[in-house]
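Most newcomers find our protein records easier to grasp once they have seen one. Read left to right, the backbone structure tokens trace the chain's path through space. Once this layout is familiar, the rest of the handout is easier to follow. The record below serves as our worked example for the rest of this section:


***
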Amino acid sequence: MTTIPMIRSVAVRRAKELQEDCPEGEVTQEFLEDRAIVSVLVNNRILETDFIESGKSILLPRRNTEYYDVLGQGIKLGILVPGKKVEEERARLKRIKGKDRFFVIGYDEDLGSGVQVG
């Protein structure tokens, strides 16, 4: 089961990865009740927003609205979910056009690391 410290650990690791990929950017982290949001800003413009979802938050229907809001603003969307939920999440989002606009990766719930799955 995904815990708050695990979500925090995955978010911190993802923020470091994003900072390495975009050293000129400002990486922000927002920790909510059972999920986290990591964003990359360059010149006050958001380039990418990643949602780190827990086993609980992945069930919330409001996520779709948030995801489509991000995509509608031309921001790249990242969705990080527990590893066992990756294929289910990809299937749920298959209607989104443009694979370069978003990605779904999994993390290992046992380790809390940002391990990419598939």
User: Anything to note?
Assistant: The longest strand covers residues 45-53. Residues 112-118 have pLDDT under 50 and may be disordered. Residues 4-107 form one domain.
